[in-house]
Amino acid sequence: MRLTEAQAVAWGRRAGEGARPPLFVGLSGPVGAGKSVLARAIAAGAGVGGFVPSPTFNLVFRYPLPGRPAGAVVHADLYRLRSQEELAGIGWEDLLAERAVLLVEWPERAGDALPADRWDVSLRVLPGEPHLRGAEVRRVGNPGPLPRLGVVRE
Ligand SMILES: Nc1ncnc2c1ncn2[C@@H]1O[C@H](COP(=O)(O)OP(=O)(O)O)[C@@H](O)[C@H]1O
Ligand SMILES: [Mg+2]
Which pTM does this prediction carry? Predict the structure, then answer.
């Protein structure tokens, strides 16, 4: 599926509006693929107000949403993750156990520590198409609902 940035943001907002914890969304793809744009849109849809910075250096930002269906949004970027010990250091197990909507860039860096029930969103840069991105959403296990975007069941 090919998406403009506006289409990606619209889908992300809808996904965030409908998101109910616990929900894990992995966002994979190379630098510049649009992972952060999508994470921001989902966070905004879930009720996070204001700017959502990229957690590239901090690894994790947490946004409590008292009174909102999402409960909280956790935005993580594992790009700089060096080891499984570091994953423990950011409280990964606690984050997974929390009633929150988890948005994780570079989820493959978590290796075996990924939850069994999740959505994997994979984004691609398309050569010669600077205004579009390739996107595929894959359901793994039995996660909570997410709006359709060409869903592939694993
Ligand atoms: N679906 C899209 N179509 C076109 N451009 C996009 C799309 N999503 C994001 N972009 C653009 O790509 C650039 C990188 O986006 P970003 O979300 O920061 O990437 P990543 O987090 O994957 O490194 C931004 O300039 C953004 O405007
Ligand atoms: Mg990013």
Answer: 0.94
